[in-house]
Amino acid sequence: MATRKTSPDDLLGPVTLAVGQEDLLLDRVVQAVVAAARAADADTDVRDLTPDQLQPGSLMELTSPSLFAERKVLVVRNAQDLSADTIKDVKAYLEDPVEDISLVLLHAGGAKGKGLLDAARKAGAREVACPKTTKPAERLTFVRQEFRTLGRSATPEACQALVDSIGSDLRELASAVAQLTSDVDGTIDEAVVGRYYTGRAEASSFNIADRAVEGRVAEALEALRWSLSTGVAPVLVTSALAQGVRAIGKLSSARGGRPADLARELGMPPWKIDRVRQQMRGWTPDGVSLALRAIAEADAGVKGGGDDPEYALEKAVVAVARAARMRRDG
Length: 330
Description:
This protein is an alpha/beta fold. Helix content is 58%, strand content 8%. The protein has helices at 23-40, 58-62, 84-95, 114-122, 136-149, 156-166, 170-183, 190-196, 201-213, 217-229, 234-252, 259-266, 270-279, 285-305, 309-323, 326-329, and strands at residues 15-20, 45-49, 72-76, 101-107, 126-130. Strand 3, helix 3 and strand 4 form a beta-alpha-beta unit. Helix 9 packs across helix 11 and helix 10 (217-229) packs antiparallel against helix 15. It starts with 14 loop residues before the first strand and ends with a helix.
């Protein structure tokens, strides 16, 4: 049994346990393990599994020896929702993990599924905390750390202005930091943030689009209604929706490769490639087609082809969010 605690730096340890409810941080844990595995073996087989995909007996099949002796990364999302029989399978596996397989358990924490959480800790899993950020000070700390990680300087006023402009979504904040560091030379100050985000209707429109293409329909509709109430032009919303869906379609049909290579091929900055990759989960080719048709209808409606532009936009946002979930719901 793996009773020795795995080092936090050992990304290829047998078990990684990510605990918390902050989606961005959970995804980054997965990305770090996958990147380390593929650096060790470019042909690493990655399986990203939800509780309904990991039935009793499935883990044994996935971890059985392969003729090709390939490295594997098995990601189990929402591990607290696994069935009791599957949890037994995982606990048994933790007692004798397989070499060259990295098991990544994403667990929300809390009382549900606590037995699995305790078993993973007892087995010496490498643990990463991914807590939900609830306080403005925590989001400010996150933004500062993002700039430091990218090797850039930003004034305290710039960091605060970014939090004030973007809000509480860590994905939005990380994306904004990445965009600023990509576009701007030198120290990033409050004036730079103001030019990019403060009061810009385009930023508001892209927030709506990001939520819609991620299938977050309630948040997308809330952002839409707020934006329209502050005077954002409807055509900016349809344009942002179209750009978001087209980016997913382009990346899903592109050849695999590093963000820098795909950026050159698709004409997107590398930070955008990473963002769209995160948003692609749940999308199908049919979903992209349906979403683009819905956006085209809305575009016609807001340009004079309909009686109620707001309703046309709401209908399009709902259609895009539903299309984003076709693979998950199908």
